[in-house]
Amino acid sequence: MIKRELPLLPLRGILVFPYMVIHLDIGRERSIAAIEQAMLGDRKMLLSAQKDTEVQSPYPEDIYEIGTIAEVKQLLKLPGGTMRVLVEGIVRGRILTYVTKEPYFKVLVEECPSEKKGLRAEHETLIRGVTHQFQEYAKMGKKVPTETVGTVLAVDDPGQLADLMVSHLNLNVIDKQAMLEKLDIGERLELLTEYIMREIEILELERRIGLRVRKQMEKAQKEYYLREQIKAIQKELGEKDERQAEAEEYREKIAKAKMPKKAEEKALKEVDRLEKMPPASAEGTVVRTYLDWLLVLPWSKASRDKHDLKRAEECLNEDHYGLEKVKERILEHLAVRKLTKNKMKSPILCFIGPPGVGKTSLGQSIARSLDRKFVRMSLGGVRDEAEIRGHRRTYVGALPGRIIQGLRTAGTRNSVFLLDEIDKMASDFRGDPASALLEVLDPEQNHDFTDHYLEVPFDLTQTMFILTANTWQTIPRPLLDRMEVIHISGYTEDEKMNIAREYLLPKQIKAHGLQDDTFILPNELIVKIIQGYTRESGVRGLERELANLCRKIAVRYVNQGWQPRVLRGADLEELLGSPRYFYQMAEEEPQIGAATGLAYTEVGGDVLTIEVTPLPGKGQLILTGKLGDVMKESAQAGWTYVRAHAKELGIAEDFYDKIDLHIHIPEGAIPKDGPSAGITMATAMASALSRQAVRDDVAMTGEITLRGNVLPIGGLKEKVLAAHRAGIKEIIIPQKNKKDLEDIPDKVREQLEFHLVSKIDEVLKIALLPLIQPEEEPDRLPFLLGNEEVKSQSDPWLGYPI
After folding, report:
1. Is 676 a residue of the active site?
2. What is the pTM of this model?
């Protein structure tokens, strides 16, 4: 085997075989240096292909081991520092080692001549087969000139014949490299046969496909020619083709629809497609449906807003009692639109409040006050993104999303669009509808809202979106951030009474066919229905009870057993039965170890009594009443505060070594949670341990910290209304909740005294009565006093009467 050191030229996307003459364009610095070095010597060099053509500066591991030793025949330098060389392959060569890598690759190469391991007869058979196949390939592909075919077939050497044939095949570098690495002539001819057969199959497939396409094109051209002849004949006869007439009708409608430019271009493009389709085509039905949707949408149609603020205020007051913040916000919007001449973008309002307070009906009133169309879409249980954005037209039965459908129903682009129950959306594998709503509810983005079905943008900036929810916790934060949230709290008893008197009762009397004088329901009986037969923040249950009352009276009226009269308490119980609900009232006298707290529930506020009893034990805190984790932590914080300040409260500093505390909140079947009972539990514990009674006319709410700070809480309005209903006279609230007192009705606020506190010490001073003297209290717990003589008694437990 001949070995020599030669410059190496890495090739990208090309491979050179022995006996092959080819031009190469050289541009890389290392390759140019290798060419120049070869020109200084005997013009011999090794040409080897790169494994990855994307590599700009290859390393030895990026280059195939076997290449072709070639001779540079010509060299031509081109502008830009590149050169073009003409090379001729001589023999295969194997890289043994890399001698140098800079400024060019210099390698030690071993020549690899062709080997003849098989029988001569086998070679002759393979040569005949491959010759015939190469001729067939050249005939079918028409890429190899006839002269070249003759030159190749005139070669007698089998190895040279195989190399020349493979160099004219349309193979990738990997296949050619596999051919180059075959040193045995028999193996090389077998692999060449496989490659040529594969190429022939590909050419045959291309021929069949080309023939089929050509036939289809000829058929389409023939149909087009005949169709044009028919059009010319119809034009001469004054007749119109049905499809052409349909297309012209669509074009006229598109011109009148006043669509945006993009939508109009899309519609006209679809009309052109429809015109070329056969009449019975299934795709034609899809296109017609799509065009009908584009034409029916209110691209430029809008109702005219009425900017009469007095009339709008009257409309809102006619339909809803109270809700001053919402009404004020709508009037502000009207005023601004009047000043900006309708150029202001519509707001995105979100009404959050308990069920039955009129959130949904408020949307209808807003539409009536603005003199706009009203559309309602319920989002409860929606879990498919396509409900918002629609389905793509590739699906069978595809339709636009509910937003576009709602605008079609309204017929105007500036309607009031109510998205109801947004907090009850879900998501699954079909997508997240809340994320799809981000574009709809963002005034900076919804001017180009694109429905998957329409595929053209629709401007939603003039649409006034109103959303409703019962709670904000389940609304995604990015979605909540795009909305102007208006909290609607529950109605007070006075508000419910007025709503029943002015709205609900007349509505039910009319609905049940009764006369206004059939019965008279005094205000005190309405309040009794509210307190004894309903427990809710809204008025749905109240309306049902009034409807029930009207039905009972209707039956008696039809049976001629009813005389028009003013109803009394006895009549109410006879018609509706005994009261079903009872509100907890304030304690009748001061209690030791019992403090009155305030709670916020889904149906409004409530009063709850926290009871604390000390027991013999080892300082454990027992909590009962189905309390949540946050409430348990608040009790722990209060317990820690009392232990840390035992001396100041007149309690033995080591009391926790002898007793346990049991904290119970009544109505144990009802789950309770939240930090707002912190100061109430701390007060009850201090009362039980210090034997100072808690005032019965005081209720309190606030979160406590380990340092005795009182932190703000939520739901103050509902809690204060519950305290007022229970007969409480004074309420202790955190100092930072002072701003929330503005939300409490003046009538209620005037009848209560509020204590704003920031420390638990202030709470205890207000809530706890002075200590009862020992001589007046024979059953006092002696082990709770800081008296050494008493503490040394063997049996400290003497009982604990409450």
Report:
1. yes
2. 0.58
* pLDDT tens by residue, 167-210: 878 788 888 888 888 888 888 888 888 888 888 888 888 888 87
Catalytic-labelled residue, pool 106, 327, 658, 719:
719
Q: Choose the catalytic residue: 167, 415, 676, 687.
A: 676
In the beta sheet, which residues pair with residue 465?
348, 417
Is 607 in contact with 596 (CB distance < 8 Å)? yes
Query: Do residues 189 and 123 lie in contact, with contact meaning Cβ atoms separated by under 8 Å?
Result: yes
Per DSSP (E only), the strands in 364-415 are: 374-378
Q: Which residue has the tokens 């009862």?
A: 772
Can you name the residues that pair with 663 across neighbouring β-strands?
612, 623
Do residues 727 and 799 touch, judged by C-beta distance below 8 A?
A: no
Rounded distance, CA 556 to CA 575, Å?
Answer: 10
Q: What is the CA radius of gyration of the chain?
A: 46
Average pLDDT, the chain: 83
Q: Tell me, what DSSP letter sits at residue 355? A: T
Q: Contact, 414 vs 463, CB < 8 A?
A: yes
Q: Of 381, 385, 480, which is closest to residue 421 (Cα–Cα)?
A: 381
CA distances in angstroms from 494 to 324, 497, 501, 724, 754, listed in the order given: 15, 5, 11, 12, 21
Q: Is 435 a catalytic residue?
A: no
Q: Which residue has the higher pLDDT, 632 or 312?
A: 632
Please check whether residue 46 is in contact with residue 73, taking contact to mean a CB–CB distance below 8 angstroms: no
CA proximity to 52, closest of 18, 109, 10, 7: 10
Q: Which two tokens stand for residue 194?
A: 């496989």
Per-residue tokens: 255: 């011109």
Place of tokens 């609607």: 488
Q: Give me the half-sphere count of Cα atoms (radius 13 Å) on the Cβ side of residue 729.
A: 7
